[in-house]
Amino acid sequence: MSHRADRHSPCSILGATVVAALLWPSTSRAQDAAPAAPNGNGGPNGTAHTPEEKRPIVVRIALSKTAAEKLSEQRVRRLVELQVGAGASVPSEATGPLDENAVRVYIDLPEPTVVVVQVQAPDRRLETRNVDVAGLPWEVATRFVATAASQSISALTAPRRKPRPRPPSPEEVARELAKRPWLEVSAGLEAVYSSDLETALFGSRVRLGYHGPILSEAISLAALGSIDAGLWTEVDVSAFHRIWIGPDVRVGLGFGFALAFTKDLRREEELAAPASDNDVELWVRPHALASIDFRLAPEAWLRAGVDPGATIDPNRDQVGLWLGGTVALGYEGW
Length: 334
What we know:
Layout: H1 2-6, H2 10-33, E1 57-63, H3 65-70, H4 73-84, E2 88-89, E3 102-111, E4 114-120, E5 127-132, H5 138-157, H6 170-179, E6 182-194, E7 199-211, E8 216-226, E9 231-246, E10 249-263, E11 280-297, E12 300-306, E13 309-313, E14 318-333
Parallel strand pairs: 1-2, 1-3
Antiparallel strand pairs: 3-4, 4-5, 6-7, 6-14, 7-8, 8-9, 9-10, 10-11, 11-12, 11-13, 12-14, 13-14
Helix pairs in contact: 4-5
């Protein structure tokens, strides 16, 4: 019984062979689908390095014939590897693969006392340093040359600083402000001349408005008085468009319509008649609107405007000229 259990039957061997044959293609496909190891440049056959990833630095150092006769090439490489720091690799060969992510260093001795060190990193500018070795032993000069090369290598392989974002221009700020909705509350002083009433009116006006990207709407209440104790009270609705000249200056153009109630406001020919205790009249006032606003604070504005229009007296079927000016302080927010 035990010997028979230890032996493998032909059926079990055949089943294992079939399973292995089924698994082998899938394993091969999985290996083929695995990403290739990255090359030095993170090219198409490798995964790209993330900006935060620290890749090892390979430094290839080559000396001209005249420089190699005076400087110890092996000592230069050893000093550069020590000074650049951990992660730096300085092979003994001056050349390497073309796709290698390497810093190239070339040291020349064009003059008997001047050593020229040229360093270039991938996607970086060429940096050249002149080392004056006049009066120095060549062993000491070798250290100075290695230090100059190490400083250039460190500067060229340091992470690039992210450029500071450009501040928006005044035109861009104005365009952005014009797209935002605003609520306005303002109050100011108003002076008016009415040709139909043949008098000037002075008083105050309060306004509540909503400013959209294209059209602004406002409702205002004004109380004006004349020199001869007459009273003009009106409710005005208006619509206008604001043009932003800059972040702190804008212009408004539009139109409005007002209903006014007057008391004791009489024309010159009516002054001889006795005043009535209930001398209240209804007037209609269509008008244009033009204003310029200046920002005083982040949410405070000074507005100066005019609202030329006409006064219509329905009781007498008369039309007169209305010319008014306003200076107001307003608060805008959302």
